[in-house]
Design a protein that fits this description.
Helix content is 73%, strand content 0%. It has 18 helices and no strands. It starts with a helix and ends in a 9-residue tail after the last helix.
Length: 351
């Protein structure tokens, strides 16, 4: 009798468990069906509904789109003059002058291949790019690591402000400062003359002109790169440094295994962008100093396009050189970005 009276509660417990499991499955099924209905409603939102919903954001992007179309994309249509014998004096309207200029095919590009001045400008451009890549690109990284290692916040803020200040100077002021320091009548030359040393003038030395340009870029623009790398370092968790210190890593080990891996995505991105600008190495900076060293040492592609197109009026040939420069820049960006993907970094865009 005792065993008989104990069996009904067991059956009841089993039934309750079955009912609870069944109700849980039913509730889960209802939740999935509700989620599916919400997804279906979201997928069924028409473009008119999205337009009304996001009209404020769309209106804010309209001025930027207009500026890009007018100043970046619309002028690309003018590259057609690279395949013409363009004469701007046919009409006062530039579009009419393009329409009435005869087509010459690839004649301007053939002229570019046979032009020794073009190859000299290309050689100077590539040499200057390599020098700047090796001597200028690592400087902001090193300075950012140095500032980041400073403990006192006031010292960090002061040093960062001092390094960033030359970024606001114009190239005219930068060249003037270097002229007053390293020119033939500059401070260093006068100091050496007082000690019996004559003939010091770095501003007119064609052999070191490219290194002088790089030094000017380091002084002017290194502070800008420091801000970018310090922003990347600010996202590194202090717990990583604490864990590395508990594992016995010294300061150099922490920098190598924690800091540099955190900077690697930013370094890869900036390196890809810098490679894309390999053929753009400072038009205004070089134009201000080309007379001091001559065109043989200072002529780059940008100044070559300016001199042939603006000074000599050969607009078609200048457009052909500029078009080749742009196409090569795009190819370099794509190649550098592909290389960044092979290294496991995102680069300019994802795979």
């Amino acid at each position: 009798m005792a065993l008989g009276t104990q069996r009904p509660p067991r059956a009841t417990a089993t039934a309750d468990t079955t009912d609870t499991a069944g109700s849980g499955k039913a509730a889960g099924g209802r939740q999935r069906r509700r989620a599916g209905k919400k997804a279906a409603r979201g997928a069924g939102v028409t473009w008119r509904i999205r337009l009304r919903r996001d009209r404020a954001l769309i209106l804010m992007t309209v001025p930027v789109i207009v500026l890009l179309l007018v100043f970046n994309y619309l002028p690309l249509l003018g590259n057609v003059v690279a395949f013409q014998d363009y004469n701007p004096y046919v009409s006062t309207n530039g579009v009419t002058a393009i329409l009435h200029s005869p087509m010459v095919g690839l004649e301007q590009f053939q002229k570019m291949v046979d032009d020794s001045d073009f190859w000299n400008a290309l050689q100077n451009t590539l040499i200057l790019f390599v020098i700047q890549l090796l001597l200028f690109f690592p400087v902001p990284i090193a300075l950012a690591l140095l500032i980041n290692s400073v403990i006192r916040p006031r010292v960090r803020a002061l040093s960062q402000a001092i390094l960033y200040l030359p970024h606001f100077f114009s190239w005219v002021l930068v060249v003037t400062v270097f002229q007053q320091m390293f020119g033939g009548a500059g401070l260093i030359a006068q100091l050496l003359q007082d000690h019996g040393v004559d003939g010091f003038d770095l501003m007119t030395d064609a052999g070191i002109f490219k290194y002088l340009l790089t030094a000017q870029m380091v002084w002017k623009d290194a502070g800008w790169g420091i801000i970018v790398f310090l922003a990347a370092l600010a996202s590194v968790s202090p717990e990583l440094y604490e864990a590395a210190a508990m594992d016995g890593a010294n300061r150099w080990r922490r920098m190598w295994h924690v800091t540099l891996p955190a900077l690697r995505p930013v370094i890869a991105l900036l390196l890809v962008l810098r490679v894309g600008d390999a053929l753009t190495v400072g038009f205004e900076q070089i134009l201000l100093q080309r007379r001091a060293v001559g065109a043989g040492a200072s002529e780059v592609l940008d100044t070559y396009v300016w001199s042939t197109g603006i000074q000599h009026g050969d607009f078609s040939y200048a457009a052909a050189v500029g078009l080749v420069k742009g196409v090569v820049g795009i190819c370099l960006v794509l190649a550098a970005n592909k290389f960044a993907h092979l290294l496991g970094e995102q680069g300019v865009y994802k795979k």
